[in-house]
Fold this protein.
Amino acid sequence: MAGVPDSVRSAPGYVPQRKISPTQRPFVPANFWAKVERRSTGDCWPWRGHIDKAGYGKWLGRSAHRWAYIDTHGDPGPFPLNLLCRNRACVNPAHLEVVTAKVNRDRRVLTPRTHCRHGHELTDDNVKIETTKAGHTLHRCWTCRREQLKKADANRWR
């Protein structure tokens, strides 16, 4: 497969991924890239389509960053893609790397998130720390919270 590095392809358990069945909607690159806010090569490219509860972009039943990798490098097979920037909404192919599941898990634990699920940078000024009734600590993006409050306010007076 074109997009899979030799180190991953030779790993035990590698099985090439099946092709998309003809009954599934086809991937149209122009439609996909229209939902991406392209910036400079080193910056994150936020996905502007559907974002799931975990903060990942979704397109045609798959993660948007996976479609970005497939379109630019080829299908990585069953292996996960590691988002080097840790921004779940990012689809910049330069920020994606094919790794094994173990490497992906290890990196996730060691690296804190730098952006919220909507692409806002998590800085000291933009994070509100809250404690739930159960005693869990939450780090909330204050930009997202302000947007939620504006929507709620607008709906209240309709």
Notes: The chain is about 30% helix and 15% strand. The CA atoms of residues 126 and 142 lie 5 Å apart. The helical segments are 6-9, 29-33, 64-73, 101-110, 142-156.
